[in-house]
Design a protein that fits this description.
Elements: E1 2-11, E2 14-24, E3 29-33, H1 40-47, E4 55-60, E5 63-65, H2 69-73, E6 76-79, H3 91-101, H4 107-117, H5 133-145, E7 151-155, H6 163-178, E8 182-186, H7 190-194, E9 199-204, E10 207-213, H8 214-217, H9 222-231
Parallel strand pairs: 3-8, 3-9, 6-7, 7-8
Antiparallel strand pairs: 1-2, 1-4, 4-5, 9-10
Helix pairs in contact: 3-4
Amino acid sequence: MIQVKKLVKRFGPKVVLRGLDFQVARGEFVALLGPNGAGKTTFLRILTSLSRPTLGQVTISGYALPAQASAVRRRLGVVSHQPLLYGDLTAEENLRFYARMYGVRNLEARIEQVLEMVGLASRRRDLVRTFSRGMQQRLAIGRAVLHDPDVMLFDEPHTGLDQDACAMLDDVLRNVAARGRTVVMTSHDLARIGDLASRFDVLSGGKIVASASRDEIGPDALLRFYRQSIVEKPAARELTI
């Protein structure tokens, strides 16, 4: 579903991604781990077509980026640091806008289902600009799953959520994975992501420096795997472009 080869991303003289290779099969749930500044958000922005690669090849569901970005976007659900919502529309109106954009069938019934799922049915007619950060994140999660996309990309989605909302998101993620959808998610919460993902990739120095399945790591060993991956990673070499 996702194929990345020799991906490079450069901002002026600074090289953030250094020939990164990354593959995700249909139905995999991959946790993308790494220290702050490792390039995780930059990488997800490239996958969502919000940023263009400097070099390298990226395909999602068989479509190449950035050339076929429109086709890729129709197959993605995204939760990022920005909620991508319209503050002067209600929760219901936001979902209706996105549902029409994605051609969602049984539109009103699906909106009702999603509002119930994210716990915002009672606030459906309130303007989004009156919502707290956590409530906006809830609605952003609803927006992302509304059209039942093939691939879901989550960038620290638990940020700003209370315990009840975190539990709701975990249920959503398990449901998405159970239906065979492909998920890539960044997270610093190793305890939570350890119960959700089927594979763990560590990004450091602009490359994937370690990758292992949950079975390979074993129970309660994710933190050790992560720390060893960071400590033992090969020294990053300068990349000239």
